[in-house]
Amino acid sequence: MADALAMMAPRLRAARERRGDSLTAVSRATGISLSTLSRIETGRRTPTLEVLLRLTRAYGLSLDELVGDAPTGGTAAPSAEGNRPAPPARRGRGDGKAVLPLTRYVGGLHAHKHVLPPVDGPPTRPRQVVHDGYEWLCVLYGRLRLALGEQDVVLSAGEVAEFDTRTPHGVANAGSGEPVEYLIMFGPQGERLRPRIPPAG
Fold first, then answer.
1. How far apart are the C-alpha atoms of 151 and 186, rounded to whole Å?
2. Fewest CB within 10 A of the end CB: N or C in the chain?
3. Same fold: 2-67 with 98-187
4. pLDDT in tens, 128-146
């Protein structure tokens, strides 16, 4: 039970971001106050059953998908290794994106692995969102397009970006004909990674 409750905060946030919705938009659509939504996503408040039902309806999820290990539909994108499937895609806009929460605790930094499927043709500029927090992003495989404010950057495997999430941002497959795998570390209260050893040279 404790593990299931701890997983709800990052799963709810990931579901909202896959849809490209702001907390304000979700608040208007569900009638849940903005402050309540923010506290739920940062793990500072446990949602009631009524609130969960409103959110799962808004995000196209079932309660089993939110708190358990039920299949979530969609098509699993291949992994970088090519010999095992990536985590199944969570339901969202039907774009085949897969999101795997990697942290199981409440509060502090959260980690997710994302997989974007291959795209046909040149990609459009990704839709940007804005929310509180700080994000660190690392590409594991493929090429990722990051639209950060007015900038557009294409990141390749091994490249990292970090930014304040109050800056409009969005990501998309850069159109290489392959899936993209990347990690996200997110500090909902603005927490950042703190290097202890400076890079050599």
1. 21
2. C
3. no
4. 988 888 999 999 999 999 9
